[in-house]
Each structure stands twice: as C-alpha cells, then as structure tokens.
Q: What sequence folds into this?
C-alpha cells in the first residue's frame, strides 16, 4: 500500500512497487507530449531496469545521462542538458523524470524549471539522502566555483515517487551518508527518532523505510509552512553552515572529497559545540551525540591553515548578514533556533575544537 504525504503543491508517494507512478502517468497521459528520464551513469545501470519493469509506459522515454558526482552539479552540465532537450525537440509539455540522488534531482529540477520558462518534472529519488531530503521541498540548483547551490530556483515537482527498493543497490558509504541527514532531522525535530538512532549501530541492513517515512513527514511539515525560507524552514540547515563549507573545501582540494551527508554529520559536531557554548545545549548530550558521529562517520582532518578558507566559504552562504555568519543552533533536541549570527573568532574556536578530535 502506498503511503501518501501531501502538501499544497504536490503529493509524495512512498510506494515500493511504483504502481502509483504507473497510475499517475496513465491518468495524466494527455498532459504530456513525451517523457525524458534524467539519470547519472550509476542510476542508469542500477535503477532504470527496475523503473522500466514497473512502469512500462516509460519504455518509450528518452534517457539523458550526466556524469555522477557533486563536481558535475554545474551550469556546464545544465547547459548540456538544455541543448539535448532542444535537439530532441522537447516542448513545454515534455515531462522530465529525475531518477537519481540529490545531484540528479537538484540538477533536473533546475533544468526543467527554466527550460522554455518551465516544463513539468517529477522526482524519483534513489538514494537515502534524496528520499529523506533532497527530492522534497522544491529547492533546485547547481554549484558555482565549488560554492554550493549558488544558482537555483524554487520549483515544485508534479509529484515525488519514492521506492526504497532502489536503496538495495546503493553503496554502503552512500547509505550512511544519508543517515547524516536523518540524524539532523532527529536533532531538530524528534527526540524519539534520536532515541531510535542512538540505540542501534548504523549498518546497511537497517529498516530504512521507517527513516524515510519519518523524515519525509518532518520535512514536509516544515516546508509547507515556509516554502521560500523566510523563517522557520531555516532550521533544516542545522549542521549545514560548516558542513557545506567542509564539503566544498574537500571538493576544491580534490584529494579526498567527502559526501554531503558525511559533511553534515561533521558540521553537526561543530554546530553542537556552538550550541553548547551559546544556546545552553546540555554538555553531556552534546558529548553523546558527538561520540555517536565519531563512531559512525570518518573524520575529515583539518588544521590551522584550513580555517581561513573554510570561513571564506561560509561567508558565501546565502543566509548571512553583513559581518556575521548565520547558524542554526539547538537549545535542546527538538528546539532549534535560527538566524543566530556568529562572529568569525567564535567560529574559529569551533573549528579548533573539531581539529583536535
Ligand atoms: N534540494 C535540496 O533540498 C537538497 C537537500 C539535501 C541535499 N541536496 C543535495 O543533494 C546532493 C547529494 O545527494 P546524494 O547524496 O543523493 O548524492 P548523489 O546524487 O551524488 O548520489 C550518490 C551516489 O550514488 C549513486 N546512486 C544513486 N542512486 C543509486 C542506487 N539506487 N544504486 C546505486 N547507486 C546509486 C549516484 O550515482 C552517486 O554516485 C548534494 O548536491 C546536496 O547539495 C539537496
């Protein structure tokens, strides 16, 4: 049975068999002139066969493939896709189906939202991170000069179709990266979810359906009240101010890039430190969560010479004011506060704290 989670713009179907997608396409076939499926090379081989077996009408779709990886989430890749759509005579009734992780859904949503001033698209997220976070909430975009998500749009998919069957093919490191965002949801919204997490070791055999369901509900509730991030939606950025900087920095260095969810988990270590210093977060619980992260995620080592470039990346964040950098802090689990503008010297203390772990 499909679980359907709705908001004012679209429905999110959690249905492992994808039969709700087959039905949706059948009921709406008059609205679409043709179908394109956007994939990267991994979702091309690992996910297309299941999709086409479950949703036969998509066997007639054209497939567009991009190279996998955050370094390809660029305007250059987007331009290639717009050219391919044009060459293949896509029109305003063309449906773009984004089949992949957060890179594919961010990229595909962006490409669709501006091609011919907007064509319809749907998201079929295939990573844990995509299913719990990236594919819902209607943010699309690409990176610019290694700075994350600098070019983008708010654009609503027609629907999001989630099948956790795809996760069976996902590499273990990617699954655990997705758990970085799951941890974020627990800390900003659900002590109960944190209790579930802390009492089991992260492993690829966990019941991800439970996490997907819970996180989709949490995110949907938050974005529904603040689509354009004027206020409370900002709490979804907990762990991301420093996390995004670490992710971009590791990418620009090229030696050992860290994954988005890994960067968020490491960002949480530092943003919890700041929460304990500045927002009264309980020190013991801070240590407990930190230990959980250290037990489950590899550290990305930094030292003194990395502090300035990391701060410089944080300054590029879209949510800052003139002199200080915007953070989400926690007063307690489930009690986030946003628009906490913090000076650089205090942030450096958090980086120093992390560097000595
Ligand atoms: N728009 C948003 O609200 C939002 C929220 C969170 C994250 N994001 C973005 O999401 C991106 C990260 O997403 P991600 O972690 O899904 O990364 P990703 O899209 O790079 O996917 C991870 C890897 O797994 C492969 N893959 C995907 N599905 C697979 C499957 N079922 N089986 C085998 N391999 C598979 C991909 O090819 C890729 O190599 C970042 O760019 C981040 O900024 C966006």
A:
């Amino acid at each position: 049975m499909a679980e359907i989670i709705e908001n004012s713009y679209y429905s999110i179907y959690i249905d492992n068999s994808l039969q709700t997608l087959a039905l949706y396409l059948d009921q709406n076939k008059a609205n679409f002139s043709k179908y394109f499926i956007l994939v990267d090379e991994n979702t091309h081989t690992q996910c297309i066969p299941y999709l086409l077996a479950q949703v036969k009408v998509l066997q007639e779709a054209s497939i567009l493939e991009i190279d996998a990886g955050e370094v390809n989430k660029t305007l250059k890749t987007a331009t290639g896709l717009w050219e391919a759509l044009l060459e293949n005579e896509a029109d305003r009734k063309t449906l773009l189906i984004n089949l992949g992780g957060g890179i594919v859904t961010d990229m595909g949503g962006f490409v669709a939202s501006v091609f011919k001033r907007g064509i319809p698209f749907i998201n079929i997220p295939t990573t844990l991170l995509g299913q719990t976070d990236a594919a819902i909430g209607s943010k699309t975009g690409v990176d610019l000069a290694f700075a994350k998500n600098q070019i983008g749009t708010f654009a609503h998919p027609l629907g999001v179709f989630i099948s956790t069957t795809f996760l069976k093919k996902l590499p273990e490191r990617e699954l655990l990266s997705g758990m970085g965002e799951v941890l974020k949801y627990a800390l900003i919204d659900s002590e109960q979810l944190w209790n579930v997490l802390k009492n089991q070791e992260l492993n690829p055999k966990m019941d991800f359906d439970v996490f997907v369901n819970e996180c989709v509900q949490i995110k949907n509730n938050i974005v529904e009240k603040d689509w354009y991030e004027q206020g409370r939606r900002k709490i979804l950025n907990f762990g991301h101010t420093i996390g995004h900087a670490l992710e971009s920095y590791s990418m620009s260095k090229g030696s050992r890039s860290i994954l988005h969810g890994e960067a968020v988990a490491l960002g949480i270590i530092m943003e919890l430190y700041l929460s304990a210093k500045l927002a009264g977060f309980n020190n013991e619980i801070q240590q407990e969560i930190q230990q959980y992260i250290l037990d489950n995620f590899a550290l990305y080592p930094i030292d003194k010479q990395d502090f300035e470039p990391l701060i410089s990346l944080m300054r590029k964040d879209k949510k800052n004011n003139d002199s200080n950098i915007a953070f989400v802090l926690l007063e307690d689990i489930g009690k986030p506060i946003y628009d906490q503008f913090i000076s650089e010297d205090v942030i450096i203390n958090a980086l120093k704290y992390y560097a000595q772990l």
